[in-house]
Write a structure and sequence with these properties.
- The protein has helices at 38-41, 45-57, 80-94, 108-117, 147-161, 169-173, 180-193, 196-207, 234-243, 261-264, 266-277, 300-307, 309-313, 342-346; strands spanning 7-11, 14-21, 26-31, 58-63, 99-104, 122-128, 222-226, 247-251, 287-297, 324-326, 351-361.
- The strands form two sheets. Strands 1-2-4-3-5-6-7-8 form an eight-stranded mixed β-sheet, with helices on both faces.
- The protein has 371 residues and is of the alpha/beta class.
- Helices cover 36% and strands 20% of the residues.
- Residues 317-325 and 364-371 have low confidence and may be disordered.
- It folds into two domains: 7-277, Rossmann fold (3-Layer(aba) Sandwich), CATH 3.40.50; 287-361, no CATH class.
- Strand 5, helix 4 and strand 6 (122-128) form a beta-alpha-beta unit.
- The longest helix is centred in the N-terminal third of the chain and has 15 residues, at 80-94.
């Protein structure tokens, strides 16, 4: 699947962007976080996989909030009402009478206010890290925060936002994700999403956000997702559920060590699919029957020692661990993979091969920089 073209809307003199992905039956609107630069996200294989999974069951509008990423830079942080009206404007522009709205942490406010203002346009809601109010809001201690938790959370976010552009925000989002690979990806997304000065403005507005006046007015069924490894106390998320008339609380599985950012969103994507379609995500979705040909150079260690690193690295089309996968005929034609090994005979290199058939999954986790 190719990345879609960005579309633009102008409201109140500000231009903001969004993308539309998929042709599925369910309508979904995803309000992007600070560093979710929708164009650059397509360059990461695991985030790309999430787009494709969503496209299989939905038509999703990925909205870039004012001042962020693909949207036009601004010098102010828009009010919750302005952000909510922007989301509704996107629904109008793409022709979605109703949709499932998805928000996380700072964009949960726009989703909640949009649902309160236009209940006939919101079929359901998924909130990840959807806190009722920020840690420096006036009534924070009335809504799940203890004074020490509120102070620690605010200090943590101010610290990482003060290092905007280094990938430090992943430390507060989920410490388990703070691997070198994820930091590099997040650093690029941060630098391309907003300036350090605007990041400070964004941070302070988010820490003081208060949704408690709006939450009781939301009628749409809502799932509130809690990450046990995030910095938000469980009591704060449970308070959101208490204030919403039709909400349920869901604890996500702990993030596996070495996970990519995209992999950490797979379970969230399952919740979105279930809420948007009314069905349960099938564990076999994305699996297929295939035959895989595995290839290897015979005595590769000795060859490397004899010719040296540079020559071995520059060997044209040297084999990889997984050579090819035949999906045609349900994996019943393993011979079709064999021509891929012609390089060995053409270059007088001894190679060995083996094949295996069965069910494979189209999601291929790549563990990087675990050290």
């Amino acid at each position: 699947m190719e990345a879609p073209q960005a579309r633009y809307l102008e409201r109140d003199g500000a231009v903001f962007a969004y993308q539309v992905v998929g042709t599925g039956a369910a309508n979904v609107l995803f309000a992007g976080e600070a560093a979710q630069h929708w164009d650059l996200a397509w360059t990461d294989p695991h985030l790309h996989e999430l787009y494709e999974r969503g496209a299989a069951f939905s038509r999703t509008a990925y909205v870039q909030m004012r001042g962020l990423g693909l949207s036009e830079p601004i010098r102010y942080w828009p009010t919750l009402e302005q952000q909510a009206d922007d989301l509704i404007a996107v629904l109008d522009d793409v022709g979605m009478p109703t949709a499932t709205l998805v928000g996380s942490l700072t964009t949960a406010g726009a989703v909640v206010v949009a649902a309160a203002k236009a209940p006939d346009r919101v079929a359901s809601i998924v909130l990840f890290k959807g806190i009722a109010c920020g840690p420096v809001a006036d009534d924070a201690t009335k809504h799940g925060w203890t004074p020490s938790e509120a102070e620690r959370n605010a200090e943590g976010w101010r610290s990482v936002m003060g290092r905007w552009g280094t990938g430090a925000s992943v430390e507060m989002w989920d410490p388990v994700l703070a691997t070198p690979y994820n930091r590099r990806l997040m650093a690029m997304l941060e630098r391309c999403s907003m300036t350090p000065a605007f990041a400070q403005l964004y941070c302070e507005a988010s820490l003081a956000m208060d949704l408690t006046p709006y939450l009781p007015a939301v009628q749409a069924p809502t799932r509130v997702l809690y990450s046990p490894q995030g910095p938000e106390p469980e009591a704060v998320l449970r308070r959101t559920v208490e204030l919403l008339p039709n909400a349920t609380f869901h604890t996500l599985a702990p993030t596996a060590p070495g996970s990519s950012i995209g992999e950490s969103y797979i379970e969230i994507g399952n919740h979105i699919e279930e809420v948007a379609t009314g069905g349960v995500h099938h564990p076999d979705a994305g699996r297929f029957l295939a035959t895989v040909l595995f290839t290897d150079v015979v005595a590769s260690t000795e060859l490397l020692a004899r010719v040296g690193d540079a020559a071995y690295r520059d060997t044209p089309r040297r084999p990889r661990a997984a050579g090819a996968a035949d999906r045609r005929g349900g994996g019943r034609r393993p011979g079709r993979c064999a021509p891929r090994c012609g390089w060995a005979m053409r270059r007088s290199v001894s190679a060995r091969a083996g094949r295996a058939g069965g069910r494979l999954c189209s999601v291929k986790p790549i563990r990087r920089d675990l050290r």
